[in-house]
Structures are given as C-alpha cells and as structure tokens.
Amino acid sequence: MSRHILVYGLYCLGIVMLTTMAARDGYSPFATGGARGPMMFGGYGPTHK
Amino acid sequence: MSDDALSVDPTPPVEAQASPPATPVTPPSTVRALSCPNCGGIVNVRAQGLTVSVLCEHCGSTLDATRPDLQVIARANEALKTPEIPLGTRGTLGGRVWEVVGYMERTDEEIGWAEYLLFNPYEGYAFLVDDGRRFSLGIMLDRLPTMGWANSMQLDGQSYSRFGDTYPVRVTFVVGEFYWRVAVGETVDETDFVRPGTMLSCEVYQTERTWTRLDLLDWGVAEEAFGISARRREYSHPAPHEPSPYKRQLREALVVGVVALLVLFVVSGIGGSEQQIGQTTTDAVLDGPEKTVVIRGLDLPSARSRVVVDADAGAIDNAWVDLDYSLTDEKTQDSVDTYGLAEHYSGSDSDGSWTEGDPRPEVSLSSIPGGKYDLVVTLSAHRWNGGSSSSSFSMPTGFAGGSTFGQDSGQTVPITVTIKRGGVFGGNILLAFLLIAIWPLIVLFKNFAFEKRRMAPVSGSGGDDDDSGGDDD
Questions:
Q1: B275-386+410-423: CATH architecture
Q2: Residues B57-77: pLDDT tens digits?
Q3: pTM, to two decimals
Q4: Cα dihedral sign, B181-B186-B189-B191
C-alpha cells in the first residue's frame, strides 16, 4: 500500500467521522436558522424586470 | 547464462600452475586485444566474428574489425566523450548478463539520446537506450508486427499506437564496436509505435528495415545493473511509452473513495428521517397587524438536535409573509431566534407570464440542546402592489374573499407552520462528498495531464511545467 493511499484513507476516515458526529448532534455550518438580518427589512418584491 | 561465459581473463590462475593435478579448465577468452593503427592504443574486440567496425576508445578512429590489421576507416575529428556506462561494463538485466560493447549518441534534431550496444554470446545484441531520464532495453525483432486499425501495429496480441510522424535520426557520436559500419552522420528514418511500457521502433536505412522492441525499465534497474548513480524520479517530460505513475494511485483512490462514500451514505441513513413534533395553522390578515401564535411542548429528547421549521403559505400571490420564530427553552428561557419569508409574485409582460418567490420557506436550526421548547411565531402578511401596470394582481382561489388586491382590505391568507426534529443536513453530506472526491479528482487530472504530455509531440524546447510530484511507490 502506498503512502498516498494510506494518507487518503485516514483523511476519508476523518471526514466520515466528522460527518457522523455532525449527524449525531444535528450540527451543520449550513443551517439556515438565525435572526433576521438588517438587509432583510425592506427587501421585498419580485426582482423580475 | 553465467558470467563465466563472458570471462575475459587471458591468463590462468597462479594456483593452477602451482598444483598441476588440480588445474581448473579456464574458458578461452572471447576478447581479442588489438592495437589501434592510428594511436597505438589497445582496442578490445569482444564479439569476434560479429563485430564489423570498432571505434577506438582512445582516439575515436573507426576501424575495420573484419581486417586482421584493423585498418582505419575514418579518423576521429572530435574529442572523445566518456559514456556514463564505460565500455566493457557488465550488468544483469532480466536475468541475462550483458556487456557494453558500443556506445552512440543520436538525435532527431529536437532532442538527443544515448544508445549502448549490449552483447551476450548466447543472446546476441541488445540496446540500452538512455533518454536522459530512464533506460529502455531494446531487442531487435525477428518477426514483423502486423498492421492494426487506425495506423496502429499489433505484436503478440498487443496494440501499439503510432507516435507522431516518421522522423530522421542522426548519429552524433559513436565509440566501441558494432555489428554494422556505424559512423557519425549516419541517418535513418524512424517511426515509433507505443503502448504504456513498450515501444516498437521501426528504422529504415537505405533498403534495410529493422524493428526493435523497447521495454521501459523500472526506475533504478539499469543504474543498479551497471553500477551508475540512480536517476531522480521526475515526470515533467515522460517518454512516449512511459506508463502513467498516477494510474495506480487513481485506482486505489477510487476504491478507498467509493468505500468512504458508501459509509457516508449509510451514516446519513442512520441519521434518520425528520419527525414532526408540532404544527399549527392560522390566518394572517393582508396588510393587517402582526399576529403571534405559540406552539408549546416541543420535545427534543436528544442531547442536541436538528430542528426544522416549515411554513406553508401556498395560497398567496403577489404578497409576502414575514415569519419571525423564537424557539424558547421552557426551563431556561434561552431562545433561538430565526426568520422566514414566504413570498410569491406573478405577472405578465412582453415576454409572457412569470412567477417568482417561494411560498413554502424552510428554516433549519443547528444543534439545538435537548429539552422542552415553545415556538413563538410572529407573522405579518403584506400585499405587493409596486409592480408595473402590466402586471396583474388578481387574487388566486383559496384566498378568503377572493377579490382583487388593493381594492379590499381585511383579506386573510392561511399559513401552516410545522416543526420537525432529526434528519441530516444535506449540506453536510454534500460537503463530505466533495472533500472525499477531491483527491481522486486531483489524481485523475494529474493522470490526464501526464497522458497529454506523454503523447505530446517531441520538443527539445524544454518545459516550464516541471511536475515532479508523482512516484511509483
């Protein structure tokens, strides 16, 4: 087994473990929740021209 | 065969003379030492009877080996170079002992390379081709390859792709002994056919055509066999028949990557589906006052959970609904605030009808601590009437009252808010997928780049994309 594949295997293991932990804790950096930002006020209406 | 077959020791061992009964049988020497008629230096002829011309190592003169007096064919006109592998050096390649008997340098006027003529009394001649990076062992074919499709050649069931056009190859330097009358300036027309690891080289000289099969030797094999320093591995300018060092890496990376992705999808499956824990439906008055509804007793049993708040205001058109959520822990009164916007607009213009907006916004909350929660929803609905006169603002069916915006007030729209827990964030899975796929993609790209360089037209202009990152380990 080459050094490349060993490092890549460990890297994949880390990714899978982090994803598993995130799934267990319901964590995501992409969660859309959050308070209304100041830019959201007044930004209504279609953008269609 | 063994080294004994190539013994050059001209004198019997001293011990043999001291004890006559035990005298070993010394094989006759196969090397004939002659004197160069030009410089007087000793010229060794190693393949007697086969060698036609000898290039004196000392003065570079071309001598006729078929004449007992080694008559000079041509005198040297340039300073002699010393081959990296000295003449007379023996080495074992593929289980056979070869002796270096000749050396020449050739060029196609773009790049140059060196060719060592190897000799073995049982195997005949072979070529050790040195392109400056790697060595190839060439054996002259005793049979003709057959024509394949699309300019390819077939030999032993393997297909060889044609590499470029036929090009002239000129001898620029020569020393040692050869089985033909080689001389500086001799030019042949060469055509190459390649497959990873092997090249078929066709040389045409006057009316003679010869085919040679060149097998690329592994890094360090020739250097170790002939006792020269090992070359540094680099892949910036691969030989046309050089196998990609990235192919194996790619295969391994794909296997590991696919296994990791399978585990990833199993993990996402184990993460479970979303589970509804609360729902309410209320009416919002268009352009009316804010309305607040509370959904109580939302249970989050896990230490930390994903929470999703869905709003459905699918009946609105040319209107929007602001949705402010506050998820409050009943025990600690800690709250998480978030916001959603349900909107939908439609109209028509010179391009036809159009629609815009999402009336069913979904808001996801990350890693909410376990406990009992209340969700406070504050909503306010508004008409949009800032469009051009070409837009129509007719009330769709489903609106209470069913009249036109801007004409009546007190119209209401039904809005359903649903709370769910659990499930897996798709963004996490997508990110993990990309992170796992990135290395195989990099190796794939490097493999493509290598193959492109390998099959690129030969050029001696030198490269600026020195990529020495790959290796065969």
A1: Sandwich (2.60)
A2: 777 777 887 777 666 666 665
A3: 0.65
A4: positive
